[in-house]
Amino acid sequence: MADHTEDALIREVYDELREEQMRLLWQRYGGLVVGAAILLVVVVAGYQAWRQYDVSNRMAEGERFHAAMTLADTGDVTGAKAALAALTSDASSGYGLLAEFKQAALLADGGDAAGAAALYQKIARDAAGNAPLSGLAGILGALIEINAGGYDPKSMEFRLSTLADDTHPYRHTARELLALVALDAGETDKARGLFETLSADAQAPAGLRERAQKLLQQIGG
After folding, report:
1. Which CATH architecture has domain 116-221?
2. Of the candidates 20, 27, 29, 116, which lies 20 to 30 Å from 66 by C-alpha distance?
3. 104 contacts 116 by C-beta, under 8 angstroms
4. Angle of helix 206-219 relative to helix 171-184, nearest 10 degrees?
5. 25-78 pLDDT tens trace
6. DSSP letters along the chain, please?
7. pLDDT digits over 88-124, tens only?
């Protein structure tokens, strides 16, 4: 019995000692603990609010883009261009860039090849840090200029050469356009060599290889 009483007394003293230690720690560091807890709550709440704003903002911009596309589909091209221009100027998500691409496409569809090509070149410059997007804009702009005719072959060759690098995602398309530029300039041997390389490139898309082979047949390759 005495042992039980002694054990109970020891536990009671230990509990009191532990409570005293906690009280002293709280007196010394309690402010820091509360401050850290408040900071954690603020950070978490701020992150959640930012995520909610980001999602809501992207949804709103997506709805604006869809509305602009609806205007274009129903024949109100002027209204669509105005809506896309507004979205391009104030969007904080990828919809701004997407709207700019669509503006260029509408210009091309409307017969304004020069305006479309210029806008694609602007997109390529603005997205210089993003090779796929910049390259896509560069390819689309070059394609419009080649189809329209009247371009400077040397300038076009220089622009496409930067996209024809071995590591560029649009290298095969750029090389195909380079071959077409050479063909337009009367440099048949140069065009033939490019088409031969493309037709034998196993990494090139199948459709592109087939086009290269057909063009080789046409020019006597």
Report:
1. Alpha Horseshoe (1.25)
2. 116
3. yes
4. 20
5. 445 544 444 444 444 444 444 445 545 545 677 788 888 888 988 998 899 999
6. -HHHHHHHHHHHHHHHHHHHHHHHHHHHHHHHHHHHHHHHHHHHHHHHHHHHHHHHHHHHHHHHHHHHHHHHHTT-HHHHHHHHHHHHHH--STHHHHHHHHHHHHHHHTT-HHHHHHHHHHHHHHTTT-HHHHHHHHHHHHHHHHHH----HHHHHHHHHHHSSTT-TTHHHHHHHHHHHHHHTT-HHHHHHHHHHHHT-TTS-HHHHHHHHHHHHHHT-
7. 888 777 788 888 988 999 999 899 999 999 999 999 9
For 62, residues 6+ apart whose C-beta sits below 8 A from its C-beta are: 95
Residue whose token pair is 């911009």: 61
CB-based contact 175:165 (threshold 8 Å): no
